[in-house]
Amino acid sequence: MNGKDEKNQLSSIKNALKILKSFTMEEPEKKISDLSNSLGLNKSTVSRTMKTLASEGFVYKDSETKKYRLGLSILSLSGVLFSNMDIYRESQPVLNKLVETTGETAHISVLDNLEVVYLQKVECNHPVRFLTHIGRRNPPYCTSSGKVLIAFSENETVEKIISKGLKRFAKNTITDPEKLRDHLKKVRENGYAVSIEELSEGVNSIAAPIYDYTGKVIAALSVVGPKQRINSYKLKAMAKQVIAASKEISRRMGYLNFS
């Protein structure tokens, strides 16, 4: 393969990955023209790439609507990923118990490219539609799990997030850099974080860190619910439950150095 062919192949792979990553829970189906316009690619390039992806089962084309959606090959790969993630296996029974005791939806999330990504979610019996689902990305500075993850990260990570801008999502979103730094300091001191209508109006959440065997914070455990159920009277009691659950997962991950 000469240099030109190799460059073209790499470009094709990059385009395919861009296309796959463009599908979201909000936009699960897209036409060729949609992908072309949103990604700035030629229709012919998108069409050719989609045919290749469809032949391998990574996308599926609806014959009636002419729209594409992700195929079962994606699900197979995600199954391989999750089955080999220790935190996914070790946290499942703890999540189930936490949802049972708190009556609220619980999540496991990690920090990736300065965003919170939700790896795991267990719904409660009375779920409310929130801005979370497995694979969902949210800004870290206005979510309880995100604040936990960046509070225990390098200072450089916090400054990068601040430099990107602190956009207001709800009435209590922290948009002042100095206030965010002070807030994260309190999160480290308290060992947990809360988000009171910071990402979405009427939605509150509580999160605590999960440690690996080296003592590094690798994920966050959070519960989220409507402000009517997660209110100021219940916050402290629920925070204790979340912290206890996060410590249990940490122990399962090999971290035993709790005071």
Question: What are its keywords?
Answer:
259 residues; alpha+beta; 9 helices; 8 strands; 46% helix
Describe the overall structure.
- The chain is of the alpha+beta class.
- 46% of the residues lie in helices and 18% in strands.
- The protein is built from 9 helices and 8 strands.
- The chain has helices at 3-22, 32-39, 43-55, 72-83, 86-102, 144-151, 155-163, 177-190, 235-252; strands spanning 59-61, 68-70, 105-112, 115-122, 137-138, 193-196, 203-211, 217-226.
- Strands 5-4-3-8-7-6 form a 6-stranded antiparallel β-sheet, with helices on both faces.
Helix vs. strand class: alpha+beta
- Output the strand order for the largest sheet: 5-4-3-8-7-6
What is the C-alpha radius of gyration, as a whole number of Å?
21 Å
Helix fraction, binned, reads 40-55%
Weakly predicted, low-confidence segments: none
The main β sheet shows up as: 6 strands, antiparallel
Distance between the termini: 59 Å
- Strand residues, percent: 15-25%
* Strand tally: 8
> Number of helical runs?
9
Brief account:
This protein has 259 residues and is of the alpha+beta class. Helices cover 46% and strands 18% of the residues. The strands form 2 sheets. A 6-stranded antiparallel sheet has the order 5-4-3-8-7-6, sandwiched between helices. It has a two-stranded antiparallel ribbon with strand order 1-2.
Topology:
Elements: H1 3-22, H2 32-39, H3 43-55, E1 59-61, E2 68-70, H4 72-83, H5 86-102, E3 105-112, E4 115-122, E5 137-138, H6 144-151, H7 155-163, H8 177-190, E6 193-196, E7 203-211, E8 217-226, H9 235-252
Antiparallel strand pairs: 1-2, 3-4, 3-8, 4-5, 6-7, 7-8
Helix pairs in contact: 1-3, 2-3, 5-9, 6-8
